[in-house]
Amino acid sequence: MTVEKVERIRRLLTEALAPLELDVIDEGHKHAGHSGEGKGHFFARIVSPAFAGKNPIERHRMVYAALGDMMPDGIHALAIEAKAPGE
């Protein structure tokens, strides 16, 4: 199930943000015993021209918008590193 979530996250972010670099990592193993265990803990590192001129909050909102219904239903926690090219 987690591999499918990682692939879906990758696909949605690629479609919405056309990243030059994209890493999506399942970090569920770091949250054993946590209240959200099994609901999906991920890290995403994204470098996209879409982030140019945007502040960190705007960038995170863009990522959340790209993921749509995955945020409340398939992802419990998402750590984001969002950069524009050259940063």
TrEMBL record:
Any GO BP annotation = iron-sulfur cluster assembly
Question: Taxonomically, which superkingdom?
Answer: Bacteria
Under what name is this protein listed? BolA family transcriptional regulator
Family statement: Belongs to the BolA/IbaG family.
